[in-house]
Design goal:
There is one protein chain. The protein has 1 helix and 6 strands, in the order ββαββββ. It is mainly beta. Strands 1, 2, 3, 4, 5 and 6 form a 6-stranded mixed beta sheet that branches.
Length: about 180
């Protein structure tokens, strides 16, 4: 209470917009895409590998660089970014009401919130389409695991390994605080 005996109250609030950045890992993963790079790894031991020929292992091409060629039956697995990717944007806001109940005792009730837009997420862009007798896809009229590679929009890419980073994620957080 002030000197005249009146209760003191205030209404503080705030709003902020914050731009975030994406970590370097997602960008670095694109360097292994063909034609810029290709990851090859050997699991286990191979007696043909020596110090003089450290890269000799089954399946290793004799000429480097060697890239898997594209065909409708290949299973390429690139890591890509959506052409329309945008950096994440976070909005934070709050509004509180503080009032003095008695000398030395205050009540505060407030609302806080956060809104996230363009949040980075990973997706699989080449998902199989649903076929039917009225809507056949490449001659397929039923939906089975066996014909899955024939029902994708872009054949020649691995359904489960082609990953794409996009900025379609969103979030909301709302809370009531009291003290």
């Amino acid at each position: 209470m002030d000197a005249s005996g009146q209760r003191q109250s205030c209404v503080p609030g705030g709003y902020g917009v914050f731009h975030s950045h994406i970590g370097g890992q997602a960008f670095l993963q694109t360097v292994v895409n063909q034609p810029w790079g290709l990851i090859r790894e050997q699991l286990g031991t191979d007696p043909t590998v020596t110090i003089q020929n450290p890269f000799a292992f089954p399946g290793q091409p004799s000429v480097l660089p060697a890239f898997t060629s594209y065909s409708p039956t290949s299973a390429l697995s690139p890591f890509s970014f959506n052409y329309y990717w945008r950096p994440p944007l976070i909005q934070r806001f709050s509004l509180n009401v503080q009032t003095e109940i008695s000398k030395g005792l205050m009540l505060e009730i407030g609302y806080i919130g956060t809104r996230g837009l363009h949040l980075t997420q990973e997706g699989f862009p080449d998902q199989a389409l649903e076929a039917s007798a009225s809507n056949p896809i490449r001659g397929q009229t039923d939906n089975t695991l066996a014909n899955l590679p024939l029902r994708v929009p872009i054949p020649g890419f691995s359904i489960s390994s082609w990953r794409q980073i996009d900025s379609e994620g969103a979030s909301w957080y709302n809370a009531l605080e009291a003290s």
